[in-house]
Amino acid sequence: MRDLPDQTSDQKFVYAFTEGNKDLKDLLGGKGANLAEMTNLGLPVPPGFTITTEACKAYLDSGDEPAALRSEVSAHLDALEQRMGKRLGEPGDPLLVSVRSGAKFSMPGMMDTVLNIGLSDASVTGLAQQAGDERFAWDSYRRLIQMFGRTVLGVDGELFEEALEEAKESKGVTVDTDLDAADLQRLVKRFKKIVKAEAGRDFPQDPREQMDLAIKAVFASWNGDRARLYRRQERIPNDLGTAVNVCSMVFGNLGPDSGTGVAFTRDPASGQQGVYGDYLQNAQGEDVVAGIRNTVPLAELESIDKASYDQLMQIMEVLENHYLDLCDIEFTIERGKLWMLQTRVGKRTAGAAFRIATQLVDQGLIDEAEALMRVNGAQLAQLMFPRFDEDAPVELLGRGIAASPGAAVGKAVFDSYTAVKWSRSGEKVILIRRETNPDDLDGMIAAEGILTSRGGKTSHAAVVARGMGKTCVCGAEDLEVDTKRRRMTVGGTVVEEGDLVSVDGSTGKVYLGEVPVVPSPVVEYFEGRMHAGADDADELVAAVHRIMAYADRVRRLRVRANADNAEDALRARRFGAQGIGLCRTEHMFLGERREMVERLILADHDEERAEALEKLLPLQKKDFIELFEAMDGLPVTVRLLDPPLHEFLPDITELSVRVALAEARKDHNENDLRLLQAVHRLHEQNPMLGLRGVRLGLVIPGLFAMQVRAIAEAAAARKDAKGDPRAEIMIPLVGTVQELEIVRDEAETVIAEVEAATGTRLKLALGTMIELPRAALTAAQIAEAAEFFSFGTNDLTQTVWGFSRDDVEASFFTAYLEKGIFGVSPFETIDQDGVGSLVRNAVAAGRATRPGLKLGVCGEHGGDPESVHFFHEVGLDYVSCSPFRIPVARLEAGRAAVESRGSDSR
């Protein structure tokens, strides 16, 4: 348990909006900090106060609020009441407040909010009289009971929804606004009965009790299932806590001259400047986000309320110029008066992120370094996904709002449970809903894409999908979604659960069946098939080109490729690889060659072994010549043979069965019997920790010598052909310097023989792979015999954690992620505390012995964005990754350089 704040100290738990600023997000959360900033800018923000994240953390640790919190809240509430000229829940003229969550990082819809706190049986009449609108007062009261019942008292929200739908059906209407005051008064009575039956208590009539319970509910929602799931998905730390914002209510449900909306200073889907957002007359904010009523485009506000529209446009310009970024804004109009309820740097699609960053550079608002920091490798990876083939024959089902781009194909499912279940069985699914809500998060994560018949670009589905980089189409009104019958109807076409559908998040189009995909223009750019700056170049490609060019100029880390053949090497070179960091020679012995290695391993005598090596040598030499030619002028690190032994031996079970059946038929096969004996002799319980790597090279005479000779002869042949081969020989799985010294001596002898035979001077670096904890711990000794280290972080992670990757990822990793033991798999992002500590120590020790020691990494972590920053920090010279991850690594290496430059200047 973390130490609780000292309640006898002067620690402050509550800040008025006038006391904070946008730089206090750690303390006030994003929402509270930005409400304070807008207040400081003189924008129309309803008065209120923020309870800090420290109060939340204290509550979560102890199960109760800090002792000083209640008195601080009372003092700020009293000041708010004096400013507003009314008291919380006062029967004659009640002050009403909202209680909203607000963590440091945006978590849309994942935590709790309660509006209209202060309403009761006594004050609802006073609100009606003051507003001159009885319907508005009862509508606000039913909303409070509904939200409070669901979020604070834990009542199933569906019960309220069903009661609301029944009220509309009995009235013969389809929208909430058609219910009059009497209808809503009856609905309030129904809602209160639901609360009593489900929560075992009456809806609280004391306004301060309402507020206090709501504050605690918001604190508790930080650890709610959907919030924890969202944090795991977005890699948000669990120990931040949420702030709570208590804000005086302004009402968008006071009639046609009132309303609520969400606006963006630029299109979050494309990055284009213009008027983007949604507006809903006679509504409160939750109606827009939930998508329960279809909104109108923000541009229509100009004809509805031009004065408010003009003021909003002016405020949007002020905010974008102040934050120097796309801003996401929530606002309410109360009888012609505009109020700002929230602003934040808006979530945007990957394409929009690149476009906006370069647009802001062109406008002189940010520099190139800041533009690079506004994008990331995960976004670039999204842009490299395929898109639908525009020339393919398609059957259009309908069209909605292009909320989050991408090309998603999958089987239609109509609830989150099915989406998760089918996805875990290997099925690709499209989650189809009327509208999503926070309880759908599991299904949204599992789905390839999301499709809703209601809502716009600011709906829950759109905002969450953009944050996750998930394809999404919203507001496809022609689609009639029937979740109970698990089907969707479009005109005369019925789409049943399990039918294939294709969703285009870039155009908003929805197709029946599977639409073929083609490479993205960004991949075509990296492949050299599209040139930024050409007349027909896509604006997105031009933006990517500019940012990548800057990243390449500033990065210190070089980026190499993991490639085992000339084809992959050439592709990697087109993608910007500066050499090969890992050529796995065992991949050269697949197919027909596998039997040659099998004969080598199982050879009984020297002549048989020598014959096998003689056959392998020319094949290896040819492989290396092709590889050195493809990477001419760039380094190529060749790892000597490193397979677990069982990969080159017959399966012991199959071979045993074959021999047993032959014996039963009295059809003895001497070769099979001999082979079975040999396999039994070499069989290992844990091949990953057995006879492999340097151990195999030491046990099988001539194996590594053959490979070194093939490398040396290939390099000599390329030099003779006027090429520039830069080969590096890497010895795998070294645990002690003595192993490396023996193989190094043998290699140097072979290289000298090739030099003498060819008359060619060769400069072949000899180094090792650091993939065992002992190697990392004895790096100072090993560096005496190695010219370079390459960290094999895949095996290093396995041996540090004691994990067999192939087994544990399928068995218990899911549970570990769900329980929060892992924030992310240590095979995906390097474990900096454990594995990273060994890397850091080995770097320091190795360079202390050999100052010019070249250092790289060739595990999967070499292409992981977060890991690339770590490798920059510890001082590696290069990272190596699969060809398609090279652009991501280049971008992140640039970002790491800018980031470290900024921290150095501080």
From TrEMBL:
- Where is substrate bound in this sequence? R584, R639, E771, G792, T793, N794, D795
Give every Pyruvate phosphate dikinase AMP/ATP-binding domain span: 69-294, 300-351
Q: Which Gene3D superfamilies match?
A: 1.20.80.30, ATP-grasp fold, A domain, ATP-grasp fold, B domain, Phosphoenolpyruvate-binding domains, Phosphohistidine domain, Pyruvate Phosphate Dikinase, domain 2
- InterPro entries to which the protein is assigned, alphabetical: ATP_grasp_subdomain_1, PEP-util_enz_mobile_dom, PEP_util_AS, PEP_util_C, Phosphohistidine_dom_sf, PPDK_AMP/ATP-bd, Pyruvate_phosphate_dikinase, Pyrv/PenolPyrv_kinase-like_dom
- UniProt keyword annotations, A-Z: ATP-binding, Kinase, Magnesium, Metal-binding, Nucleotide-binding, Pyruvate, Transferase
Task: Give the range the annotation lists for the signal sequence.
Answer: none
Identify the residues that the record assigns to the PEP-utilising enzyme mobile domain, covering every copy. Answer: 427-508
Query: Where do the catalytic residues lie?
Result: H460 (tele-phosphohistidine intermediate), C858 (proton donor)
Record-level Gene Ontology MF annotations: ATP binding; kinase activity; metal ion binding; pyruvate, phosphate dikinase activity
| Keyword Thylakoid tagged | no
Q: Which cofactor does it need?
A: Mg(2+)
What residues does Mg(2+) bind to?
E771, D795
EC number(s) given by UniProt: 2.7.9.1
What sequence ranges are listed for the domain PEP-utilising enzyme C-terminal? Answer: 542-894
Indicate whether Metal-binding appears among the record's keywords: yes
Q: What catalytic activity is recorded?
A: pyruvate + phosphate + ATP = phosphoenolpyruvate + AMP + diphosphate + H(+)
> Which family does the record claim for this protein?
Belongs to the PEP-utilizing enzyme family.
Name listed for the protein in its UniProt record = Pyruvate, phosphate dikinase
